[in-house]
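Reopening this ticket.

The earlier resolution said the output was attached, but the attachment link was broken on my side. Pasting everything inline this time so it's all in one place.
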Amino acid sequence: MDLPLSKPVLEVFTREGITSLRPAQEKAIAAGLLDKTSLLVCTPTASGKTLIAEMAALKHALEGNGKTVYIVPLVALANEKYKEFKRKYGHLCKIALTSSDLDSSDSFLIEYDIIICTAEKLDSLIRHHTPWLAMVSLVVIDEIHLLNDVERGPTLEILITIMKKLLKNVQLIGLSATIGNPSELAAWLGAKLVQDTWRPVPLKKGTLFGDELEFVD
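Inline output:
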């Protein structure tokens, strides 16, 4: 792959069986992913959105541009992402998970490059005036469509607003498979919109009546 990423990163991709980029990943790079351009990526499930965020995070970390905060909606998902990132990239950069003890500034995280957390935890870190937040250069918002969620939406919206205000040159990457108004959300984020319909498994629609399943052509 001809990518502006370091040889060790490309070696990890090869080891993971990644020999070519998926359409959404190609579009993201063309839109400025690796040039610190903020993006809203709206593509189907399993179309490669996570790798888009990983490429940006690794470029920030390995080139010394700043820290990445990777926001996920659930603690279980944070644990899953941490284990995956640690397995793949733990030898290249320092990766941390922080999702418990909301009443803490977690000052130890100043030593880490990629920090995975929930929105609630990031909210707590901001309220504790955590000094290392000023070193954040990339914020990834996984499942950004939860802005529309009654419970989590307001917290997430405030967090994004605060991060944009505190970090003038921060790169924002929003990831989602389901957004009803992507153009409006991209404009609010100050991001370029990346959309694609490719999916690894074709999606079929059909009707099940009794024991009969009829697919729509």
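Reporter confirms the inline version is readable. The beta strands are 39-42, 67-72, 95-98, 114-118, 136-142, 171-176, 192-195, 206-209, 212-215. The chain has one domain: 7-215.
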